[in-house]
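Fold this sequence, please.
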Amino acid sequence: MKSITIHNMEDELAEKIETLAAENNLSQNKFIKSVLRESLLPVAKNTKKQDFRRFYGRWTMPQEQAFLNRIQDL
């Protein structure tokens, strides 16, 4: 297993990591690894949901109804 070192981290970022790690009852190391894992190695079962996240809550009710009307025959 490899180790990495991050140089010249901004104070604001370091403080945010420290705060969020404490809020989640994790060491900073474990917190950073979990953030990296979640962002770079998504779990396969969540991949489809993540693919469409940018579309959540985007339709108005009239748009939804128009879409449902168009696919009614399908």
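DSSP finds four helices and no strands in the chain. The chain has one domain: 11-70.
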